[in-house]
Amino acid sequence: MSFNTKFSLRSFLKQVTKLTDNQKESIERAGFGNLLRIPDHVLRRSQLDQLMEKWSCEKQAFIFPPGEITITLLDVALILGLRVTGQPVVLELLAPLTSLEKEFGASVVNRTIGIELLKERLESVGDRDDESFVRVFLLYCFGTLLFPSANGKVDSRYLHLLQDVDNVSSFAWGAAVLEDLNNCLRQRKSKKTNNIGGCLILLQIWCYEHIITGRPKLLDYSTFPRVCRWESSARQYAKSSQFNINFEELEHTQILWKLEPTSEEMEIDMIREIPQEWHLRSGPGTIEQPIEVENQSAIRMGTKPNEEVDEEEEDERMSGEESAIFVTSDEWHLRSGPGTIKQPIEVQSQSAIRMGTKHNEEVDEEGPVSREESILFVLSDGEESKEIEDLRKEILELKTIIEEKKENEVKIQAENEELKKRVQDDEYMLMKMEKHISELGILLSKLSMQ
């Protein structure tokens, strides 16, 4: 099933080429500077179409023959260079219409802004690099690159988050991009629609990073963000069979189940601040044991009161309760999936991650006491996957050791070159001294003869 999209990396990049240095600095301060370095990639539509068909709405993951794999927040941070921790991006449905929204032509019944209007505003801004420019440029970025919708319009409620430009960089925009992409993949699969929104370049580069076959040339291993380190997806890739991927025949060894930041990437604040705990769903079979959940943990089981009307007594209301997972504002990013928190996440039966209880008997002074501990059970794909994952970890450790040795060898080589140069200089000075001594000897001989 082919697809139509309003995603347009080329439109975004055309505006980037028009920016002055001061305007680029303003976008950098807002936390979106890495997007300005994205090269001109061409979407590989056939490959993306096949990949999207492998999406499971229930598991929010791609299902391949060897197992399932999802897009994690770490993936987003490494690929796009956007922050995935911080304040959650929330578009409140009943938020009052602001004066900023009215300035962009939004109304209570139509809270959207057209891309063409934003483009015209960018043209009229000229060389200005003030707050007004930052808002217009980011809205254009949202509509063409990060949050493109099927109707080609931008939600005006984003202006609520852009009112204080100095505070824009504190939001977890990368997590919101992942949430939006997941929603678009779900809608396409569930509604069987040809129109799709979402940041498709994230999906394409994610495929390059995780599927080690049928991908273009890796230009520079150390480039950040990773969207910049792949050879631009030129049109010839779409026509060459060398770059075709048969997702139905993928083998376990053809999938990189979990991305690991390089030592250089770990020096970047937005990568270093991501905790390791939320990498739980990075690959199949990586967790064999139940995970103990302590009080005040990031993922908590609670109840959400609901009022339901009794059929027999319409005047009386009965309070019902249903299970929900509540995610704290500081630690919500432990989930490997969506990052924009709009409401508690409903827990469906037979879900992949379940809350349960473990009964422990402890001996008290008055006798045995039964206690219950909360446990988060994560499904496993077997011992074989665990062994393979352990081998992958060992390989990564060996690669790290080899890189360190190479760095040491380079340092030693440089020191040897310096030492060699010093020896050559000393030898040259010694030769000059020997020649000088010889000349002095001859002079002394002549003086003695006189």
Written description of the protein model:
The protein is built from 13 helices and 13 strands. Helix 4 packs across helix 9 (173-191). The strands form five sheets. It has a three-stranded antiparallel beta sheet. The protein is of the alpha+beta class and 450 residues long. Strand 2 (55-56) and strand 3 (61-64) form a beta hairpin. The chain is 40% helix and 15% strand. One of its GO terms (biological process) is meristem maintenance. This is Aminotransferase-like plant mobile domain-containing protein. It comes from Helianthus annuus (Common sunflower).
Instruction: State the shape.
Output: elongated
Q: Report the order of strands and helices.
A: EHHHEEEHHEHHEHHEHHHEEEEEEH
Q: Show unreliable segments.
A: 280-366, 369-380
* Overall helicity: 25-40%
Sheet with the most strands, sense and barrel status? 3 strands, antiparallel
Strand content: 15-25%
SS content category = alpha+beta
Strand order in the largest sheet: 2-3-4
Helix count from the secondary structure assignment = 13
Can you give the mean pLDDT? 78
Distance between the termini: 110 Å
Q: Radius of gyration, Cα only, in angstroms?
A: 30 Å
**Strand count:** 13
Topology, pairings included?
Elements: E1 4-5, H1 9-17, H2 21-29, H3 45-53, E2 55-56, E3 61-64, E4 67-69, H4 73-80, H5 99-103, E5 112-114, H6 115-125, H7 131-146, E6 153-155, H8 158-162, H9 173-191, E7 195-196, H10 200-210, H11 235-239, H12 269-272, E8 291-292, E9 299-309, E10 317-327, E11 345-346, E12 353-364, E13 367-378, H13 383-449
Parallel strand pairs: 1-7
Antiparallel strand pairs: 2-3, 3-4, 5-6, 8-13, 9-10, 10-11, 12-13
Helix pairs in contact: 4-9, 6-7
